[in-house]
Amino acid sequence: MKFVNHWINGSRVDGDSRTAEIFNPATGEVSGKVAMASVADVDAAVAAAVAAFPAWRDASLVKRARVLFRFRELMDAHSDELAALISAEHGKVHSDALGEVARGLEVVEFACGIPHLLKGGFSEGVSTRVDSYSIRQPIGVVAGITPFNFPAMVPMWMYPIAIACGNAFILKPSEKDPSASLLMARLWQEAGLPDGVFNVVQGDKVAVDRLLEHEDVKAVSFVGSTPIARYVYETGTSHGKRVQALGGAKNHMLVLPDADLDLVADSAVSAGFGSAGERCMAISVVLAVDPIGDELVDKIAERVSRLTIGPGDDERSEMGPLVTEVHRDKVASYLDLGLSEGAKLVVDGREVQVLGGGKATDTPGFWLGPTVLDHVPAGSRVHTEEIFGPVLSVVRVSSYEEGLELINGGEYGNGTAIFTNDGGAARRFQNEVEVGMVGINVPIPVPMAFYSFGGWKASLFGDTHVHGAEGVHFYTRGKVVTSRWLDPSHGGVNLGFPTNK
Ligand code: NAD
Q: Which atom of ligand 1 is nearest to the CA of 466?
């Protein structure tokens, strides 16, 4: 049985004796144990990062970039191995795991441009013989706390940029699928990153709370559910830290009657059931504007009936299991809830056949097939709550305005999409919708690495999105220097407020 421990100062460390079980979601069996950090373990990681920071901060931009280039090559070469680790603990299919590695690598590639990204501004002669320039400097030790659903990509939203900017980083991955973090740590070392610049502490609330309180941790990036994101934001900022905390989501796809319904059905099924719906950018609600509802639901149901559900390491599988039994049961409970709220169950994921097994809920492992609920009442719990599983709800609306109002009235504002062939309607939507990431005929509008990722409302606490220019901003502090090299003849006391002359 594997034992996943911490990575501190360039070595694997067992730390405290507390552990938790790791499962194989496809079989339901325990596949290993993960260390759960104590306060002392976190303190050891912070101390290693504090010690490594000054030399790394002083490494030249080009030297830092070269480590990133090497890390990029190593990650690419090990992407299959990384994907297999992810699939074995998360449950997602191998091709999907490879996809998350590829999207994470794009952030590494962006961070390779750090010499350019950290160029400041310079103004000659802001006053007589006075020049001004701006520089951005690393903040020190920074932490990233990440969710189970992207054990490689979400950490890679954070650490390539934090490290490229000259910070030392501590990752606290999800305890549900921790193995990817140790492979990434080893590859950093192989790439030539000095020990202590990248550390991993495994664990739960104990580790998170210590990172939030520790005075040597200067900034915290968090991605996870909304209640924890709010808690991390409030606790971290009350301890004087810079915090960006990304939360949950309930993403709507608004379908206007002029849309190409085959494209819509393909997109809704891909975005609703990819990774078993355990994506913060998954589409979980389709808003079908009258009169297309019946035709669209038929097309969606037909496509869902052709999906293959099975273990992530079986090439035939298109959708894997859910991450834990508790989570599967919670997601499945929304089916009966939906029925009690007046929805119609068009496809019942409990009945879906699993490759090599039987009916989803009778097969060992954490299975639930793709589920489609139609006529979900607007404002019902199934419509508004984040389910985070393979449950696609269709809500019928009579107009664009009614659909927009439902999106803007929701608690979350992570992603959304409009499907239409009317450019004017799409433009109005992009302007009026209160959501951070918007797709136009694109169901999962995840921004590229050189833009920044983040939602609005309860999907993000703090004002900085992750990666792209905002990531560079988050992991650095600005400084403006005003300099004057005097003529020997110039001088004189002046108690007035400095204004330019
Ligand atoms: P989670 O909130 O349960 O856990 C996230 C992290 O917080 C983990 O590292 C976990 O160990 C830690 N944690 C859990 N409970 C804690 C507590 N009480 N105190 C301190 N730390 C705690 O989230 P999850 O189930 O791992 O991930 C799924 C959630 O993440 C969904 O809500 C999803 O929408 C969200 N998510 C959001 C984004 C985004 O970009 N907005 C991206 C991915 C996932």
A: 40
Q: Whose CA is nearest to atom 35 of ligand 1?
A: 224
Active site residues: 280
CB burial readout 3-33, b (16+ within 10 A) else e: ebbbbbbbebbebeeebeebbbbbebeeebb
> Is the CB of residue 459 below 6 angstroms from any atom belonging to ligand 1?
yes
**What pairing do the DSSP bridges indicate for beta strands 29-35 and 19-24?**
antiparallel
Instruction: Give the tens place of pLDDT for each residue, 304-357.
Output: 999 999 999 999 999 999 999 999 999 999 999 999 999 999 999 999 999 999
Residue 486 confidence (pLDDT): 79
Give yes or no for a contact between 238 and 159, defined as CB atoms under 8 angstroms apart.
Answer: no
Q: How far is the CA of 227 from the centre of ligand 1 (A)?
A: 9
Encoded tokens for 416: 């959304």
Please tell me the residue having the least CA distance from ligand 1 atom 20. 205
- For the Cβ of 158 lying below 6 angstroms from any atom of ligand 1, the answer is no
* Closest CA to ligand 1's atom 16: 205
Cα–Cα distance measured from residue 297 to residue 293, given in angstroms and rounded to the nearest whole number: 6
Instruction: Using alpha carbons, select from 270, 258, 259, 210 the residue that is nearest to residue 235.
Output: 210
Relative to the CA of 232, which ligand 1 atom is closest?
20
Distance between CA atoms of residues 283 and 392, nearest Å: 7
* Residue 460 Cα: closest atom of ligand 1: 41
- Say what the pLDDT of residue 496 is: 87
Q: Where are the alpha helices (DSSP H) in 9-151?
A: 39-58, 61-77, 79-90, 94-111, 114-117
Q: How far is CA 355 from CA 110, 372, 415, in A?
A: 39, 20, 32
The pTM of this model reads: 0.97
Residues in the chain where the model's pLDDT stays below 50: none
Strand order through the sheet with 130-138: 122-127, 130-138, 476-484
Q: Cβ(312) to ligand 1 under 6 A?
A: no
**Residue of 287, 225, 242 whose CA lies nearest to 412:** 225
- Residue pair 88/175 in contact (Cβ under 8 Å)? The answer is no
Please give the DSSP secondary-structure letter assigned to residue 323. Answer: S
pLDDT digits (tens, 9 = 90+) for 441-466: 999 999 999 999 999 999 999 999 99
